[in-house]
Amino acid sequence: MVRFRTKCPKCLKTKFWKIADNRLKCKNCYYKFTPKNNLIQLRQLISEFSLEHSTNIILERVKISKYKLLKILTLLRMEMTKDIPEVFEGIVEVDETYLGGQMRNKRKEIKIKLGKNRRGFGTVKQP
Q: This protein's superkingdom (predicted)?
């Protein structure tokens, strides 16, 4: 049994069963219909967004207009930015780490210029 805020078009009841073809069946009058505010599509769209698929792939799978998709995705992104924690604001110190990689496949001139044991080569210490 699936409960939505939508109502049956015939008897106006709010209890439904979910049928295999993504439609709803009223518990009272057994009328089969597709809800207007399609929560199933919205859930599928959010799951595709959380899997980091491109908009073209989401368009093929969810089958809504491109304008609606872009509008929903921008609203999702705006809501996600509201919940960013303030943990890393300001100066953050990290001890015993090397920034950058090893000096592999570099010319001798560059290795001599940078020094012998400069593991985080190419970086400058930040204040």
A: Bacteria
Query: Which of the 8 DSSP states describes residue 18?
Result: E
Please report, as a single letter, which amino acid is at residue 51. L
Coarse DSSP helix, strand, coil percentages of the chain, rounded to the nearest 5 percent:
35, 10, 55
CA dihedral 108, 114, 116, 118 (to 10 degrees): -130
Residue-wise pLDDT for 17-63, tens only, equals: 999 888 899 999 999 988 776 677 888 899 999 999 999 999 998 88
DSSP 117: S
Listed in sequence order, the residues at least 6 apart from 44 whose beta carbon sits closer than 8 Å to its beta carbon are: 61, 62
Q: Where are the domains of the chain?
A: 1-36, 39-80
Eight-class DSSP state of 96: S
Note the pTM of the prediction, 2 decimals: 0.43
